[in-house]
Design a protein that fits this description.
Blueprint lengths: L3 E2 L6 H6 L9 H13 L14 H13 L5 H12 L3 H6 L7 H9 L8 H12 L7 E2 L3 E14 L8 E4 L5 E13 L7 E2 L3 E3 L11 H15 L5 E5 L6 H9 L3 E5 L6 H12 L4 E6 L5 E11 L8 E11 L2 E10 L8 H9 L3 H12 L15 H22 L1 H7 L5 H14 E2 L3 H9 L6
Parallel strand pairs: 1-14, 3-8, 8-9
Antiparallel strand pairs: 2-3, 3-5, 4-5, 5-6, 5-7, 9-13, 10-11, 11-12, 12-13
Helix pairs in contact: 2-3, 2-7, 3-6, 3-13, 4-15, 6-13, 7-13, 14-16
């Protein structure tokens, strides 16, 4: 097989002016941000035993996730052998490519907390580029959905941090889970992921970590990282309990949280009593398709039966089609509900599904393979690979928001999976000087002949 090195053509000079966007949101700038953070991490390995620097190891692992290809390193090593050059060097500034086992050994021992500031760096770049403003909700707030997900499971492979679940037959299943937060908007397809919180045992299996405890840690870290951000937390009924709401209030966060009837029986009874007394406000509208939308709300109701019960505002929404209820849900919030904002609050509450559809579903089913066992390790390998995968997804989301060249290239393919498959196939046999030239090649292959 012949390997060809591709260089940018003058033909594209004028065309590319159309695709200029903020330099600090370019592929090179985002990768430079990662490289700087990685460069600040202290490498505790013995110098005489270091064959590949920490930068090359981490950027190789990230590149593997960026192109969604577990075989990327092998392909680029072949290019290096044949052409004395490779795409890891030209695109990611990797000087020496580690073997899979070497990469896993180093990344396993890397402190995950050292990688998390990269997420904050990317958010700040979006803020500087005025891109974060596109996610503003109710004038000056940002909707932030939180939800848990499993990204590793096995009946055999395990580590001290694994969560465990015992079946009725006594069989132990080992898992790794995370609690994820994303900034979202009801009208935006893209989401902005923040650094996840690992749901991870820290003292073996004697005391299981859980999603709600991880949620409390996550809320505190988000406020520390973003002290001035006006946030509305959106979550399922797991979070609409007093201890968690008190945590939100303490950290100056507003909330729209699902309140299922079975989880809030006293609250529902209280609302029903107030409804009979005529204290519950309501109205209904019918859209152009004949579908009825019903809204109900009441402010200042006790969340539970405790003497010190948190006072919340409650609203309910139903969709009725052809006389049948096709959807219904209820929420609690600290935002005063009125006829003027109830529809917007419902839109905010219903957008919680975006973290599942636009984030988890994409990561699991659109080529990112987050549930694939890239390597479990004994310390942090599994979680660090998840972080690299999520950072790759974050950069791709940034390009969907800001990069017209990327958007044009992506638009040539019917699915995200087909798009990345084409890019992977291309970098197996061709070497590109930069990310832009790779996209140009995909857009117009004939221009390079």
């Amino acid at each position: 097989m012949e390997y060809i090195q591709i260089y940018s053509l003058d033909f594209f000079n004028d065309v590319c002016l159309e695709y200029k966007h903020a330099k600090h949101l370019s592929f090179e700038a985002l990768c430079n941000t990662m490289r700087k953070r990685i460069g600040d991490i202290e490498d505790n390995r013995e110098i005489r035993k270091v064959e590949h620097c920490l930068h090359d190891v981490c950027m190789s692992g990230f590149a593997m996730m960026y192109f969604q290809d577990p075989s990327l390193l092998e392909f680029q090593q072949r290019l290096e052998d044949k052409a004395r050059n490779n795409n890891l060097k030209t695109l990611f500034s990797v000087k020496t490519i580690p073997k899979d086992s070497q990469m896993r050994d180093v990344i396993d021992k890397l402190d995950s907390e050292k990688l998390k500031p990269i997420f904050n760096d990317f958010v700040e770049k979006l803020r500087r580029g005025k891109q974060l403003e596109r996610f503003l909700f109710m004038k000056d707030y940002y909707l932030m959905s939180i939800d848990g997900s499993e990204y590793f499971g096995s009946d055999k492979v395990k580590c001290p941090g694994c969560l465990t679940k015992e079946s009725k037959s006594g069989k132990i299943h080992y898992t790794h889970q995370i609690l994820q937060s994303v900034i979202m908007h009801p009208d935006m397809r893209q989401v902005i992921p923040l650094a996840p919180e690992a749901i991870k045992n820290v003292d073996g299996h004697q005391k299981q970590d859980c999603e709600i405890q991880a949620g409390k840690r996550l809320i505190q870290k988000i406020r520390q990282d973003h002290p001035r951000l006006k946030i509305i937390i959106v979550g399922d009924s797991l979070y609409s309990k007093q201890p968690f709401i008190e945590k939100l209030v303490k950290h100056r966060m507003r909330y729209i949280l699902t309140a299922k009837d079975n989880d809030h029986k006293l609250l529902v009874e209280w609302v029903n009593e107030q409804r009979q007394l005529g204290e519950v406000s309501s109205y209904r509208t019918t859209d152009t398709k004949g579908i009825v939308h019903e809204y109900e709300w009441i402010n200042d109701v006790p969340l539970n039966g405790r003497d010190d019960a948190q006072m919340v505002n409650y609203f309910h929404y139903r969709i009725v089609k052809n006389g049948k209820v096709t959807y219904k849900s209820s929420w609690v919030t600290d935002i005063s509900v009125t006829e003027h904002n109830v529809r917007e609050l419902v839109r905010g509450g219903r957008s919680r599904w975006k973290i599942e559809n636009e984030a988890f579903n994409t990561l699991k089913n659109q080529g990112y393979h987050i549930e694939h066992n890239f390597g479990h390790g004994k310390e942090n390998l599994s979680f660090n690979f998840f972080l690299f995968n999520l950072l790759a997804f974050f950069i791709h989301q940034i390009f969907e928001l800001t990069d017209a060249l990327y958007q044009q290239c992506r638009g040539k393919f019917s699915s995200r999976r087909a798009f990345w498959q084409c890019l992977k196939n291309t970098i197996i046999v061709l070497i590109f000087p930069d990310w832009q030239t790779l996209l140009e090649r995909i857009i117009d292959p004939m221009a390079f002949l």
